[in-house]
UniProtKB/TrEMBL annotation:
<dbReference type="InterPro" id="IPR044151">
    <property type="entry name" value="ALDH_KGSADH"/>
</dbReference>
<dbReference type="InterPro" id="IPR016163">
    <property type="entry name" value="Ald_DH_C"/>
</dbReference>
<dbReference type="Pfam" id="PF00171">
    <property type="entry name" value="Aldedh"/>
</dbReference>
<dbReference type="InterPro" id="IPR015590">
    <property type="entry name" value="Aldehyde_DH_dom"/>
</dbReference>
<comment type="similarity">
    <text>Belongs to the aldehyde dehydrogenase family.</text>
</comment>
<feature type="domain" description="Aldehyde dehydrogenase">
    <location>
        <begin position="22"/>
        <end position="460"/>
    </location>
</feature>
<protein>
    <recommendedName>
        <fullName>2,5-dioxovalerate dehydrogenase</fullName>
        <ecNumber>1.2.1.26</ecNumber>
    </recommendedName>
</protein>
<dbReference type="InterPro" id="IPR016162">
    <property type="entry name" value="Ald_DH_N"/>
</dbReference>
<dbReference type="GO" id="GO:0047533">
    <property type="term" value="F:2,5-dioxovalerate dehydrogenase (NADP+) activity"/>
</dbReference>
<dbReference type="InterPro" id="IPR016161">
    <property type="entry name" value="Ald_DH/histidinol_DH"/>
</dbReference>
<keyword id="KW-0560">Oxidoreductase</keyword>
<dbReference type="InterPro" id="IPR050740">
    <property type="entry name" value="Aldehyde_DH_Superfamily"/>
</dbReference>
Length: 525
């Protein structure tokens, strides 16, 4: 399948009119064809008005029809085969096996949301039947279900060119909720975006849905991106990327005449706490596990372990020595884009020049383009707590170890942390009391707390929370991974005193969809 470079607006393929975006192969810095001319304000308006036209029909599709649409997208993506793998490898610098894994994850996500849609739990049906004889006042019949918010603007992430991009978690959860989606393609992988976008466009046609259910636009964030967020037809935003980008979009959404929710996943350094007994019993294995997690994907994961906190001890010295040896042996890896490489280099240089941190170890060097060289820094709890810059995310294989005088000081460090996607604890039974004292703080700081694991590797499942207080995300009440992500794009509506003929099918008397419901305060499955 050859690439056209066209915007995909509804069922149309339209040549953009603004400055073109070209993909760059980060392994060679070579520019990749074709050009992707950016969309204009008129293209944004066309995509948004088509999405609005499609909205009522799409949100009214049956659970079965919507699930079948999600499954058809997965099928169409799989049919792209090696064409998609090769283009994604060239645009991202990620190894082929990682891209193949990500295609699998993307399709699994779509099928998991299809299962979720069919089950219908997300409709959260509640029924309070009429009590005409109630004194002093009768109660009318009241029924609640969730409905879709409206068209959603999705910003593809650079670090998951498939699983968090055009057909990724934000898109899948918005489609599952009944929302049309307009994607602003990430400029780092326009070809991958086009291929996946065409698979979705084809699925819209295959399933005979209104064309405005999906559009894909190229162009700059400040023009196309802000244009989408400002369009009155857009009712919510999904984003993964930098703190500055997420904050800019959130502010634009709040400044609208009708403010809308922005679900931005931005910045997290994912603290790892090493407790005394665990360090003493298996410090070397922990050090190896830590460096493996840190180096995975050149550290370009939102759950990268960028901070380690422990009380000073000979066992911690051994941990640092073993981790340093492993870091020194780490080969370089190609980063996703020249921009991300530059930001990483600036970040580690700033840490190396900071008097409050010392460079402990760095990985092998290489001559290649955009190569990430692993870095490990050490600081004291005292310096960490007085220098807020040490909490800044350095996106890549860089981590900072904070040495504390005692457990009380480790808890003080935890209290000073910004919001996080994850917090990890390594412990043995003898550490239980100390960990219990830390947990209330970790619950306030993070969306996911792990015991004796590593934060990289986010399961797509019902119980997952991939979210957390600011700046991990712009809205701590939600998750962007897992089936609960659908809740971001829904809102409740209550139907009072409706005749059965006018009630939506999900809340009709007799429960024709056989949904689990809360009826007069009792769960009825
Ligand atoms: P980014 O610069 O935030 O870009 C993400 C998307 O948002 C792009 O489509 C970009 O458009 C758009 N955008 C950025 N700033 C905007 C603004 N002010 N207004 C409107 N749209 C805007 O993120 P990135 O390119 O993926 O990576 C850059 C840095 O983000 C990394 O170095 C890292 O620090 C961080 N990052 C963090 C995570 C995480 O999960 N924590 C993941 C990825 C990246 P353009 O096409 O114009 O660039």
């Amino acid at each position: 399948m050859s690439l056209s470079g066209n915007l995909l607006i509804g069922q149309r393929a339209i040549a953009g009119t603004q400055a073109p975006v070209f993909a760059i192969n980060p392994a060679t810095n070579a520019q990749l064809e074709p050009a992707y001319p950016g969309g204009s304000r008129e293209h944004v308006e066309l995509a948004c008005s088509l999405a609005w036209e499609a909205f009522d029909r799409y949100r009214d599709t049956s659970l079965e029809a919507r699930a079948a649409f999600l499954e058809r997208i997965a099928q169409n993506i799989e049919a792209l085969g090696d064409t998609l793998v090769q283009r994604a490898v060239a645009e991202s610098g990620l190894p082929q096996a990682r891209i193949q894994g990500e295609i699998g994850r993307t399709c699994f996500q779509l099928r998991t949301f299809a299962r979720t849609v069919r089950a219908g739990e997300w409709l959260d049906v509640r029924v309070d039947e009429a009590l005409p004889e109630r004194q002093p006042l009768p109660r009318p019949d009241l029924r609640q279900r969730h409905v879709a918010l409206g068209p959603v603007a999705v910003f593809g992430a650079s670090n998951f060119p498939l699983a968090f991009s055009v057909a990724g978690g934000d898109t899948a959860s918005a489609f599952a909720a009944g929302c049309p989606v307009i994607v602003k393609a990430h400029s780092a992988h326009p070809g991958t975006s086009e291929l996946v976008g065409r698979a979705i466009q084809q699925a819209v046609q295959d399933c005979e849905l209104p064309e405005g259910v999906f559009s894909l636009l190229y162009g700059s964030g400040t023009e196309i991106g802000i244009g989408l967020v400002n369009d009155p037809h857009i009712k919510a935003v999904g984003f993964t990327g930098s703190r500055s980008g997420g904050v800019a979009l959130t502010q634009a959404a709040q400044a609208r005449r009708e403010p809308i929710p922005v679900y931005a996943e931005m910045s997290s350094i994912n603290p790892v706490f090493l407790f005394e007994s665990a360090l003493a019993n298996r410090g070397a294995a922990l050090a190896e596990g830590f460096v493996a997690s840190l180096n995975q994907g050149a550290g370009q994961f939102c759950t990268n372990p960028g901070l380690v906190i422990a009380v000073k001890s000979p066992a911690l010295d051994d941990f640092i020595a073993t981790a340093s040896t492993a870091i020194a042996k780490s080969p370089t890896q190609t980063m996703l884009t020249p921009g991300i490489y530059k930001a990483y280099s600036t970040g580690v240089q700033a840490l190396a020049a900071n008097a409050n941190a010392r460079l402990q170890a760095k990985g092998a060097e290489s001559e290649g383009h955009n190569q990430c060289q692993s870095h490990l820094f050490v600081t004291t709890a005292h310096d960490f707590m007085r220098d807020h810059t040490l909490q800044a995310e350095v996106f890549g294989s860089s981590s900072l170890i904070v040495e504390c005088d005692d457990l009380a000081q480790a808890r003080q460090v935890a209290e000073q942390l910004e919001g996080q996607l994850t917090a990890t604890v390594h412990m043995d039974d003898a550490d239980t009391d100390a960990v219990a004292k830390l947990l209330p703080t970790l619950e306030r700081k993070a969306g996911r707390i792990l015991i004796n694991g590593w934060p990289t590797g986010v399961e797509v499942c019902d119980a997952m929370v991939h979210g957390g207080p600011f700046p991990a995300t712009s809205d701590a009440r939600s998750t962007s991974v897992g089936t609960a992500a659908i809740l971001r794009f829904l809102r409740p509506v209550c139907y009072q005193n409706f005749p059965d003929s006018l009630l939506p099918t999900a809340i009709k008397q007799g429960n024709p969809l056989n949904l689990s419901r809360l009826v007069n305060g009792q769960r009825v499955s």
